[in-house]
Every structure is written in structure tokens, then in C-alpha cells.
């Protein structure tokens, strides 16, 4: 449906500009956002305020002032969605009303003031797989030397992908009353938080506005993880799409039970913040690739994941190089682990 699940290919942001906004902008502002406007126009055009007001696929963010005093004008954002050819992967779950209710893939939208949750189809994990997963994770936890506690949260029972996705790690991105750009600029923190959830830590991601944490994670090529064998921060493997497509890379290299972090950039930037993105990749028990964005809760499965990964890494607006890092066998970076995560609030 129009407007839903939209992301600007230049900024990787879900903000939608209107004709009304442009009329209120200075020539300088329009010039500074020219590339962003062009990218939006190719997909959505430039809708009128009334058109968005009548759509169920957008959310209106009221004007607010950041902690540093910066005033942010009222604006519109696209609501996210989930896609797959056969089964939807999941939707970001209501963390208050679905707490510990991991076995049911269907749930209601009960979070007051949140973005619309997605209609869940049947993505399931067998009880046998859950048992096998937990046993495997408990052994990995010993090998990774996982701490008993991270960010003030004690380690609990490991969670499968579905269980962690039902909880979600970035709930404020969809809370209209708390909406701020920090929760749209914390993709690396969200990636680390989702991995932590799968390891049994009940945490969520901090806002990207709290510090330069997210940008630092990306630029230092640690991804928030530490190699316990080499005893040093991790380094991404840099892959060129001319050598192997992103989907084919994971199809060829990722094994069941392994989890990866994927980083891709837009052209004209050397930072992730605002012009690049980080997501998580793994396989389900049937061997299907899952491309999951912990920042907004969107997921792609199977053939849908193939199209999605091809689009984000081979788009003309993106750099031809993407970066990957296996993370399920890595420790959390000792410097970042207590800075990018916080105890999950019962929203």
C-alpha cells in the first residue's frame, strides 16, 4: 500500500516530505535536501498534507525539542511492514502485552500510542528446534564467555529468533509521544541489542542521540563485538557485489545456527549515521535466509529476503561494497556493551 514501509534510498530514513513543507522552506533548505527530495519523488512523488492525513500507512510526529535544544518541526513518517512470499517473518511485538508469550505468532496491537503493528501470518518454530537452539546457545555462551550481567540485566534463557522478535529491541521508534530522531539513528545499537536478546539478556537499544555510540561502532569496525580467540575487536569482511551478491554470500556461507551482521552504505558517505544501515541475518530451521531489521522490526524471508538484500546492496544510490560479520560466536565489545544497551522497559 502507498506510503507503507517507505524508506528514502538516499538517507535510508522513513520521513516523508509534503508539498506544504517545501513551501515553508527556505531556498537554502531545499538545496541542502535536494538529493533526498529527488529520491522520494521517484517513489512517492511529493504528496499533499491532506493526502497523508487521510492515510493509515503513515504516522504524524508532533514538533518537539531535543535535549540539546534543537527544535524539530512536526513531520510525517511511514509505517513499517513485513514481507515474504510464503510466510511473514514477524512483526515487532508489543513488549508489554506479549511478555514471555513466545509460542504464539499472532498477537494484537495493544501498545497505546505506538505505530500500527503488522498483520502476522504463520511463521513458526518447532518445539524441537527451540530445545536444540537453547542447548546450542548455552554451550556457545560458555565459549564466548558471556557475562552474567550486561547493562544491569542478568542473563536468562536464550531466545530463538521468533521469541526475540516478538519482544523487539527499539520500541520508542514507534511511540508517537517519545518519537525522536535518536531512535531512527540507532541501527547498530539495535543490532547488538537483538543479538543480546537472543542470548537471553532482556535489553533494548539506547537512542542514537545519547552519544556518538552508533557512529563510533560503525567507524571502528567492531560492530559492537569482540573476538575472544584473537582477543581484539572484530573487523568486518568487506565484500564487493561484483564478486558475489549479498544474498548469494549468505546462502553460500551461513550455516543453520549462525548469525551475522550486515552493513551497507549510501554513496558519498563514510559513516553509517543517516546514510547507511546495519541489519541482522540468520537462517531459520528450514534453511531459509532471514533478513531482519531490529531497528524497526521489519523482516524478510526466503525469496523476499533475496529481493530485499539485492535491492539494498545493488541500488544505484548505494556503494558496491557491503560488510559482513559473524556475531553468534563473538563476545560483546567490553567498551560498548554497557553503553549501547539498557534494561528493557515494560512499554
Molecular structure report:
The chain has helices at residues 19-24, 27-32, 34-43, 49-53, 127-144, 161-167, 187-199, 213-219, 246-253, 303-314, and strands spanning 15-16, 58-61, 64-65, 71-72, 75-78, 83-84, 149-150, 153-154, 203-205, 225-227, 232-233, 237-240, 259-266, 276-283, 289-293, 298-301, 318-326, 331-332, 341-343. The chain has a 7-stranded mixed β-sheet, with helices on both faces. The chain is 27% helix and 20% strand. The two termini are 28 Å apart. The chain has 347 residues and is an alpha+beta fold.
Low confidence ranges: 82-121
> What characterizes the major β-sheet?
7 strands, mixed
Total of domains: 2
Average the pLDDT over all residues and give the rounded result: 77
Oligomer: single chain
DSSP, total strands? 19
Radius of gyration: 19 Å
The span between the termini is 28 Å
The percent range for strand residues is 15-25%
Provide the succession of SSEs: EHHHHEEEEEHEEHHEHEEEHEEEEHEEE
**Biggest sheet, strands in spatial order?**
6-16-15-14-13-17-12
The SS-based structural class is alpha+beta
What form results from the Cα inertia axes?
A: globular
Tell me the number of helical segments per DSSP (H or I, 4 or more residues long): 10
Portion of residues in helices? 25-40%
Amino acid at each position: 500500500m502507498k506510503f507503507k514501509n517507505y524508506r528514502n534510498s538516499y538517507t535510508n530514513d522513513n520521513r516523508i516530505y509534503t508539498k506544504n513543507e517545501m513551501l515553508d522552506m527556505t531556498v537554502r533548505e531545499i538545496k541542502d535536501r535536494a538529493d533526498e527530495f529527488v529520491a522520494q519523488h521517484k517513489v512517492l512523488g511529493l504528496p499533499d498534507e491532506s493526502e497523508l492525513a487521510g492515510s493509515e500507512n503513515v504516522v504524524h510526529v508532533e514538533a518537539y525539542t531535543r535535549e540539546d535544544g534543537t527544535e524539530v518541526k512536526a513531520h510525517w513518517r511511514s509505517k513499517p511492514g513485513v514481507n515474504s512470499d510464503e510466510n511473514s517473518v514477524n512483526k515487532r511485538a508489543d513488549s508489554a502485552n506479549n511478555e514471555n508469550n513466545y509460542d504464539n505468532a499472532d498477537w494484537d496491537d495493544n501498545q497505546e500510542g505506538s505505530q500500527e503493528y503488522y498483520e502476522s501470518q504463520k511463521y513458526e518454530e518447532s518445539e524441537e528446534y527451540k530445545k536444540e537452539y537453547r542447548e546450542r546457545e548455552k554451550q556457545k555462551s560458555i565459549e564466548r564467555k558471556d557475562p552474567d550481567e550486561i547493562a544491569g540485566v542478568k542473563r536468562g534463557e536464550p531466545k530463538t529468533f521468533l521469541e526475540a522478535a516478538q519482544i523487539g529491541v527499539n520500541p520508542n521508534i514507534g511511540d508517537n509521544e517519545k518519537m525522536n530522531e535518536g531512535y531512527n539513528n540507532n541501527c547498530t545499537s539495535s543490532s547488538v541489542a537483538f543479538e543480546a536478546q537472543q542470548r537471553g539478556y532482556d535489553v533494548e537499544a539506547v537512542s542514537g542521540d545519547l552519544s556518538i555510540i552508533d557512529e563510533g561502532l560503525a567507524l571502528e569496525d567492531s560492530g559492537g563485538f569482540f573476538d575472544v580467540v584473537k582477543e581484539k575487536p572484530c573487523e568486518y569482511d568487506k565484500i564487493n557485489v561484483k564478486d558475489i551478491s549479498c544474498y548469494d554470500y549468505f546462502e553460500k556461507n551461513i550455516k543453520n545456527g549462525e548469525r551475522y551482521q550486515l552493513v551497507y552504505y549510501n554513496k558519498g558517505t563514510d559513516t553509517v549515521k543517516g546514510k547507511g544501515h546495519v541489519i541482522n541475518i540468520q537462517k531459520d530451521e528450514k534453511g531459509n535466509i532471514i533478513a531482519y531489521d531490529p531497528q524497526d522490526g521489519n523482516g524478510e524471508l526466503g525469496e523476499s529476503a533475496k529481493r530485499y538484500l539485492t535491492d539494498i546492496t545493488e541500488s544505484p544510490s548505494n556503494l558496491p561494497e557491503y560488510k559482513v560479520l559473524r556475531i553468534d560466536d563473538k563476545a560483546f565489545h567490553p567498551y560498548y556493551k554497557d553503553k549501547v544497551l539498557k534494561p528493557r522497559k515494560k512499554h
